[in-house]
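Ticket #4471: structure export looks truncated?
Reporter: QA, pipeline team
Priority: medium

Steps to reproduce: submit the single chain below to the structure queue and open the exported record.
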Amino acid sequence: MEPRSETVAKTALTPRRTTTGWSSVRPVERLCYATGAVLVASGLVHLVVFAVDGGPWDGPVSWRKPFTFGLSFGLTLVALTWVTSYLRVGARLRGVLLAVFAADCVLEVGGITLQAWRKVPSHLDMETPFDTAVSMSLAVGGGVLVVLLTVFAVASFRGRPSGPTAMPLAVRAGFAVLLVGLASGAAMIARGVTLTRTGHQEAAYHSTAPLKPLHGVSLHAVLVLPALSWLMSRTPWQDRTKERVMYAAVAAYGAAVVAAGVRAALTY
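Actual output as written to the record:
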């Protein structure tokens, strides 16, 4: 018989898949799912506000920002909560990371939404002490997001993710592409801050535009690819067919990321 300590250690690192349904969802996961739903709802509400109030769609001051950020952060939080359940990460550590991630998502969307209602830019705005505080908090929050998501990405490659056929490939590919999104986001912040500090405030607001398509496409691979694997698990297809479809999907998503990257390089 194995020592009890070894059994407990193995159990702690084994993804939870013994029960199904909402009753098997941990409290921290319920919190994250609920928070993600609220952020998505916030984004959709601001789409209605845009339809009623009007104004520009592009630019540093627009209802587009609370809409897209609310929707994107909400979906990403829901996706990460679900996808990380397939990772071989200790339950307690995963719970802490998810809780911090959820709080950071609320901070990011909250700051962006606040500035949208104040009719001032949310990022790279150093015009007043308050605007500087909001802008810096968003930058710090972005740094926290990078660290948390990188930890999950590393975990996906250190241990083979569990799940149905093609899910391990979907999870690993999703996190790999996500890292591209994080790198492009960091590049946007770095370039914008540099321009701001050198007195080119207006140029800083527009400097992020070329990288936005690459950033947006890359961030959601961790939702799209695992969702495809989950959908295929509901079909009668053979395992080999599912794997081939997933390889094709990963290749197609990779091509889209490369195309967005080339476009960014040509217009940056």
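Status: closed, not a bug. The export was complete when the record was re-opened. Leaving a note from the reviewer for reference: The chain is about 75% helix and 0% strand.
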